[in-house]
Predict the structure.
Amino acid sequence: MPISCIREAGLVGFGINIDMDAWRSVDPSVRKRLGDAQIFCCSRIMRRLIDRLETVGLQQEGISVVFDRDFEFARPRLKLFEKLAKFYAEIHAKVAQISFADSRRFCPLQAADLLAWETRRELINRSGGHESNPRWGDLLAALPSGQIEFAVGEYWTKEWFDQEIPRLQGRTGATAASLI
């Protein structure tokens, strides 16, 4: 069922992962401007989505965010977007909707979970110089050619932080918004 949702939607997949040892090695003043690790990952995903919308000429479109309806995590997820709104005005402006759904009955969440897990695994494999997991190939083979684009994403290691933080800060200065 999740594969058919993916097939029908023509999804673009994004994945952002952080090596937590690398995160802890980032200068605390920079980490403070980035927010916590969750805020950083979420802001990077949102940045990739906003860039993608602009690339395909849909920059005016709003983004709908749908979370699994897990009551234990509902409030923290809303708080995450509250923090994002404070850190990143552009992201706040682009989020049109935040909602919760039952993943057993809302197939797109099943598809998102599958894609998120397999993309994370693929990022770790690639960063370690390993071959793709066979399931990654099986997943992509199950989809019709051209129906999905994997902008595989980012796995933030110490080397990535060391390389990218100065580059991101150089965009418009050392504000939080320039670090996404």
In short: The CA atoms of residues 126 and 180 lie 22 Å apart.
